[in-house]
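Tutorial, part two.
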Amino acid sequence: MNRENPPGGILDIDLNERLHVDIGAFCNNNCIFCMEEDREGREARVGRITPEDIKHVLTSNRARKEVMFVSGEPTLNRHFVSYVRWAATLGYERVGVISNGRRFADPVFCAKALSAGLNYVIISIHGADEKTHDGLTRSPRSFAQAMEGIRNLSTLKRRFPLQLNTSTVLNRRNSEPEALDALVQLLTPHVDQMVFNIMQPFGRGQTHFDRLMLKYTELADRLGHFFANHKGKELPVYLVDIPYCTTENRGIPDIARGYIERYVHYEVADAATDPGKATNKERIEGGAAVKHRQLRRGDALETDENSRLTERHRDDQEQ
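Running the prediction step on this input gives:
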């Protein structure tokens, strides 16, 4: 397929950067560390994105290889399957979603989404049992439904080309080595990769920072003990958002450290009515702000409140 920029598309882009598209105005979880604390603001911001907007940004960016549907809970958008189909038809090699997994507990919904072209799913799972996960999501039955979704998707991998990953936000409640052991044992039969994200001090993460956040060195020690329990095994576990220097000499395999994410993030921003939204890191394309964010291996990791964390691409050329 021709990967040149289409007429009217966004110029001067790195085609390996993933496109993130906000479509989830709502979420049926209520995570205590959620970076999107302003739920009403998210509903207003994402709720005004129309199918025409989504079609425009997908078409404008079709030179890219990957698109991820993000924000809130994307699968609650009634157009989700249509958006997946549009992306697949436009030729995106990887069409994915970051999800809490609960809608995938419906096997019919799973089959429809994968039949439409969904081939990459990241499920947020924050503990190996109901008490831990539901306590952090503050949503009864979220663990049971997420695990049912993971099992359904795992079964469908026999019929569809699907990469199934998980994302776990590490904090005081779920990062003891024994808890991580249980989580890996639970997920290994079903998923391809497990990403451990370190909690970020944004939104509710800032509100509950003192209660939930560990010092990086303390967390690195816990992770070192966890990997020591699996010495000699090549676990598909990768660490994100913990400074590279804090994980040195703590028994953490180098393969698990130093991952980065590269993406552009689409959201509605009207520079005419709200000039503050159009910064020098944005380009306005048909009324849509496209934000650039890159994290490099070994850098002090940064984030912003509009970012979502996804699978990372390792940069082997930078230390």
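The chain has ten helices and twelve strands. In part three we will examine how such features are distributed along the chain.
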